[in-house]
Structures are given as C-alpha cells and as structure tokens.
Amino acid sequence: MNKMLSFWTDVMKLPTIGPMYAFSKDVSSYASDFVSLGKMMAELKTSMDSYWALVSTAYAKAMKETMERAPKQLLTKDDFENYRRAAIEAFEDAFTELFASPEFSAVYGKMFSSQLDVSRSIQGIAEKNSKTLNLPTRSEVDEILKDVAELKRSVRDLKRSMEIKDDGARTTT
Amino acid sequence: MTEQELRPDQKQEVQPPGEPPKELKQPSVADEVKEAYRKLDKARAVLHTAGDIEVGQTPHEVLAETRAYRLLHYQQMVSKTARTPILVVYALINRSYILDLQHDKSWVKSLLSQGFDIYLVDWKNPTAADKYVSFDDYVNCYIDDCVNAVLKKTKVDKLTLHGYCMGGTMSTMYTTLHQEKVRNLAVIAPVVDTEKDTTVIGNLAKHMDVDKMVNVIGNLPCEQLYACYSALKPFKQGVNKYFNLVQNIDNDQFVGNFLRIEKWLYDTPPIAGETFRQWIGDIYQKNLLVKNEMKLGNELIDLSKINVPLLNIIADEDHLVSPQCSAPLNDVVSSADKRLMRFHTGHVGLIASLYSQNNVLPKVGQWLKARSQ
C-alpha cells in the first residue's frame, strides 16, 4: 500500500507533466477566481434586484389601472371579456412605458453586463481546466477564428484585384 | 308554422300574458366551461403543429448556395415586362419566407405577377465559427457575389436592389460602394438614423455592452432576440394574440394565418457576433451610418454618394424601426429621383398582409416598373 501511495506522490511531483501538477500549481489562482466569481454573483444579484424592483412597480401600476378601468362586478360573460380587455390595456401601457424608459434601459444594460461578467469568470476557470488537460482553450480557438475571417477577406480582395487586372488586360488586347 | 308542425325539441315556450318576454336560453356556466376547455385543448394541439405549416411556396430554384446564403430565383408567373431584375436582400433577423408567407399575402408573388424577375438572398444560420463575420463580409462579399450572379444570369449591367429592414440598411451600404451595379435602390423600413428611433429596441440597445457580449457569448443567441421581441408589445401581441387564437380556433383561415406568423416569429437564427457588434455599437449607439462615418473594412460608407433612384417605403405604426429612423435616408442621399412612401400599417403588415397586397404593392410595382426598362 505504501508503495502504491508513494508512486502517486512521485507522479504529483513530476515537474512539467500531468494534470495534477498543473492543478496543484494553480491552486491559489483557482481560489482567487472563485472569490471574484462570488463577487460578480453578488453584483448580479444587486442588478437583478433593481430590475425586479422596476418590473414590480410596473406590475403594481398595471394592477391598479386594471381595477380602475375594469367592471366592478363580474356577473356576465361580457363583464369577464371587458375585464380581460381592461387588463391587457393597462398592462400594455404600464410595461411599454417601462421598457421605453431610459431608467429601464440603464438597469437592463447593467444586469446584462453583470450576467456576462459571471459567464466570463466561469469561462476563465474552464479555460484553466482546458490548459491543464492540454486542450486548446476558447481564447485560442477564438484567435484562430479571427485569423480565418481575416484570411478569407484577404483572399476575397486578392481575387477581386486579379479579376480587375484580367478585365483590364482583356480590354487592352 | 303552427305549434303542431314543430318537432318536440323545437316547441316554443308560450309567453304568459303580461310578463316581459324571456331572453333566448343562455348556455349554462358548465357548458361554457366545457366549450372553453375544448377550445383551449384544440389551441394547444394546434400550436404544437406550428412548425409544420408550409410557407415560402412560390416556385423557385436555388441559383447559388454557400455556407452563408442561398440565392433563390423565382419562377416567372407572367411574361417578363420589366427588363431590370430585382434582387431582394432580406434581413439577418428571422427568415426570408415572411416575404412569401402565403399565396394571398406574398410580397414576392405580387411582384412576380407584375412582371418582375425576382431573386432573393436567403441567409443561412451563422455557426460559432462565423463569430468574426462582419457587415464587410455580408455587403462586400455575399451580397456582391449574389449581385454578380444575377447580372451574369440576366445579362444586364445593373439591377434593382430591394432590401427589407436590416436588409434595407445593407442594400444601402452596398449601393454606396458598388453603385455601378445598381439601377434602383428600393428599401423597406431601413435602419438609418437611430438617434431618431423611438422603439423599445432602440432604447434597449443604448446601454448594451455589446463588446463584452460578443467577447463572452460570440454570436447573438436567439433567446436574446426573443427577450427583445417580448418587450415590444408584451401584452397586446404577446398575450392577447393567444386569447384571439382560442376564440377563433374553429376558423381554419384565422388559424392558418396565425400559425404562419407564429412560425416566423420563433424561427430566429443567431446573428454573427462581429456583425451584431457593428449593428448595435456603430449603428444604434454611435449612429455612424447617417453621419457618414461608418466603415466596412477600410471603406467609408458615405450615403451622400448614392445618386440612383431611391424608393423608401415606411410604416407609420412600425414598432421595430421607427418611421423617423428610416425617413432621413431621403435627406442624405444625392439622388435627384427619390420617393418616400408612407403607409398606415406596421413593420410586418407592410410586407405580409392583405393591406400590403392592396395598398402597398401596386404603388411599389408602379414605381419600380417606371424605372426598370
């Protein structure tokens, strides 16, 4: 048993290969990644609170308007139909006003940005894992995609300039 | 008819003299609940089949196909009376079959019936590998390739470029850079001056951190677009339309029309990341297009260079692209022959409705025909 355990200890100590070495080397940076992820989650929570506060206010306003516009008693089918119409109108007015307001735009933008921060942080941790396993990371693949897109444009431009030259040559002859 | 002639179930109650006449027998609450449940159940079943409904049925052939697009050529319905072919450039949002939704509301079919030769750029879904595909690629590569293919097939030197919504904006960009291939520019609800846009989309775009979004997510996912759409007319269209569906569930024509639009609304491809970055950052946030400061690759888009005949078709009740956002195109181009047509309808009603067939298309066809010989 001792022999078996010491074998694994030796593997862990190997300087440049093996996922365990890479993991143990990055322990402190993993810890700080998780701390910053926690902070971002807290920021997202704050942004979401602001978002839901606006939505709740609009909802309350719509409900109040519905009560004012809708029939007071629901006795007939028409009463229900009029209630539905009043509710749709009131909710449409309240929420359209909300979605078109500069305040909502700012709060929604901040919440979306916080969401992206959380995703980016998780992606950062995943990238470390990819590196540990000797896999290409998302950023590396991204760089290649960017290069491919630029190469395609260069080929397109070259083709076009060759076509123009060919046309010019044909016209001269 | 005497009382004796009535079958027992048809016998009428005799009104006692002196009493007010009784109203016709109302269905009981239980009957109404049962009927409502039947309609709801039918609506649920019908909605599950929305994806199967057929759209885009006007006969066509695929003239060219790449990873990015299919170039469709529609079969002529009448003998060609207009010499200049029309290349329709659809938007990158949802699918092009909205222009050929059903036989009686088809933009394409109407133009064919007026004697035009119609081609359409049908964009394909960008994949994760297309993250860096930009407007430069769409305009200077894909649209240009399609224009060249149409010119080659029809053996003419110029065509009419006809763009809808974002496709209108791309057609406008193309015309500034390749005007020698464009006889007429006809755009429907193009996004041009976003400072004047009053829509919810314009409002949401103002504070979007689009650079971060593209870096983190890549292409714009369809869920994000659904979120935007649901904020447009959240209750009148988002909720009320389903009430209307349930109420009209036994009307086959209503259900068919509903399902076709529903299918289109939820048939949303992603948008290539770099293109979306330019769309929101350059066009909506910085308003570079109308300021003549937008660049595609190294080339500046200068709208004042446009001098071909211009037709700008806009809708007064457009809640996706404000008419105030589209109309300024006519002010910034140099064309001597330019026309702004305004119609009292919405963004989709402008192209896929009976209103459009009766009021919009005859005028559009007339304008195009006069400039297509």
Greatest interface by residues involved: A-B, 33 and 34 residues
Number of helices of chain B: 13
Report the CATH superfamily of chain B. Alpha/Beta hydrolase fold, catalytic domain
pLDDT average of chain A, as an integer? 87
Give the N-to-C terminal Cα separation of chain A.
Answer: 88 Å
Total beta-strand segments of chain B: 10
The CATH topology of chain B corresponds to: Rossmann fold
- What is the name of the CATH class of chain B? Alpha Beta
Radius of gyration of chain A: 31 Å
Q: Helix and strand succession of chain A?
A: HHHHHH
How many DSSP H or I helices of chain A?
Answer: 6
Could you list the spans of chain A in which at least 5 consecutive residues all have pLDDT below 50? none
How large is the radius of gyration of chain B? 25 Å
Shape verdict of chain A: flat
Fraction in helix of chain A:
over 70%
Tally of individual domains of chain A: 2
State the order of secondary-structure elements of chain B, H for helix, E for strand: HEEEHEHEHEHHHHHHEEEHHEH
